[in-house]
Write the structure tokens for this entry.
Amino acid sequence: MLNFEEELKKFKPCLEVEDIEEAVYQEDLTDMTDILKELQRK
């Protein structure tokens, strides 16, 4: 059986759209295009 009080303590609200956008842009997201460009430079 679920203990709702314990579950509420663990709850973290999801980010708003603006916050998600900011968090994503702060990450170093290397994709295949970046890898191929780096290999071509070498």
